[in-house]
Amino acid sequence: MGKGISIGVTLSILLFLLYLGFSPLPLLVLAVIVGMAWYFFQSRSGAQIGVGQNKRLQRKSSVPDVSFEEIGGHARSKKELKEALDFLIHRDRIQQYGIRPIKGILLSGPPGTGKTLMAKAAAHYTDSVFAATSGSEFVEMYVGVGAQRIRELFRDARTQARKNQKNSAIIFIDEIDVIGGKREGSQHREYDQTLNQLLTEMDGITSDQEVQVLVVAATNRKDMLDSALLRPGRFDRHISVDLPDKQARVSILKMHTRNKPLAEDADIERIALETFGFSGAQLESLTNEAAIYALRDNSRLIGHEHLSRAIDKVMMGEKTDRETTREERERVAIHELGHAVVSEWVRSGSVSQVSLSPRGQALGYVRHHPGQDRYLYTRKQLEDQVMICLAGAAAEQMIYKNRSTGAQNDYEQATRYIRTLMEAGLSDLGIIDKDLVGKEMLHAESAKILKDLYERTEHLLQQYSHVFQEALDVLLREEVLSGDQFRQLLKYTASSSDAVRIGG
Ligand code: ATP
């Protein structure tokens, strides 16, 4: 009815304008623009309020089938989490003791370490329905919509639990820092409302409710979170989910190769050794990439070489077709050989590969591993790392008597190590407060260390100068030198010359 009247009125106005001699075209264009904007607004807010949310919850709110056994490593985090979850399982007992229920668990750690997996396993372990959302889904919300979404999230989780005849529900909020960041001044007003609503809902959780709700949140930036979120009675259980150590990497790799045809020569222990610093997600991606390489090679089985290539792919990105001149290739080879020589000198057996194929931003690279996972460094160990970084530039200087722009990243990395060295009180400055000693003093000390280490690197490379010509020819021909091939060359050239080992 209303529609009919408005169409009638619009037509009459248009006819009247025509009669007066005005063109109705601009009005029509304006009407179309307004109509489109209105339609866009309606469809977005419709999706955000209710409709999209319910769909999402319906999709995700059954009990997940991921168990703790399917998460590699993280033994301590899993144990801590299970202990906290036991409170949810034995509700009657905790009520007896008058213990308040755990309302929130915060999982913190680098991206891809398995926080979402842990939350799903928590729901599986406690036989709870699982409702997942992410802080970033609250970005660009209209005022009040975020808070409404939080209310719906809790309400729908409870409804789903009842429907599935479960007496608990786990709400998982990934990237909690997006809505739970520290509140300063009048910024983030909309996020404030969302966060306040979350806190209100959490405060409303009691142990005598028919459906017990537990909120599990994940973040990579725990330091950014508002203290209101972390106070007792809210997210007061903090569990860190760190990068996997070597043993954990072995078990994650085994888990993700279980359904893949591995060849006899595939050495998972070795791959784990060479993937220090990889997250669970990167390890999963590595196994997948290795399988793709095997498929492309028409190989029935996934060999060690496929896994090794996959490390490069995950670490450095896909090979690029960057065209380089012969001169550039030679210089890159010399540069990389410099890194490799010093890396072997620092830790014999540490070089896994020297490669001349451009990947990501790099024109060549050396893959070396620390031998064993390391979390503490002495001054000597940090200095060794700096020397490995400087060795590319020093090798160029030795052969060409000049250096190129290719060492820029190496210098950045070297200065990072030196900063750590100074801030940890390991430099000649002694133990310092970096804010009090002043930038100039830090700069002067850093420059002194850099100069000293650069000279030592140059001196060291001179002792091995005979290796370069030999290795350069092979590298230019083969494009890739495996760690073993490189060590063979080192050994061969050392025995056929008077090279001396000056440390290590
Ligand atoms: P983000 O912080 O980026 O959200 P996350 O820490 O939540 O990441 P997940 O989404 O849980 O990481 O992990 C991504 C994928 O990585 C998983 O689906 C799984 O395949 C793999 N993965 C990560 N950690 C592990 C692990 N410990 N064991 C087995 N697989 C893992």
Entry summary:
With 504 residues, this protein is α/β, with parallel strands linked by helices.
3D architecture notes:
This protein has 504 residues and is an alpha/beta fold. The protein folds into 3 domains: 173 residues, Rossmann fold; 71 residues, Orthogonal Bundle (Helicase, Ruva Protein, domain 3), CATH 1.10.8; 164 residues, Peptidase M41 (Methane Monooxygenase Hydroxylase, Chain G, domain 1, Up-down Bundle). Helices cover 58% and strands 9% of the residues. It has a 5-stranded parallel beta sheet with strand order 2-3-4-1-5, with helices on both faces. The longest helix is centred in the first third of the chain and has 36 residues. It is globular. The C terminus is likely disordered. The protein binds adenosine-5'-triphosphate. Adenosine-5'-triphosphate binds next to helix 5, helix 10 and helix 12.
From the 3D structure, determine the CATH topology of the largest domain. Answer: Rossmann fold
Written as H for each helix and E for each strand, in order along the chain, the element string is HHHHEHEHEHHEHEHHHHHEEHHHHHEH
CATH class of the largest domain: Alpha Beta
Q: Count of helices?
A: 20
Q: State the fourth-level CATH superfamily of the largest domain.
A: P-loop containing nucleotide triphosphate hydrolases
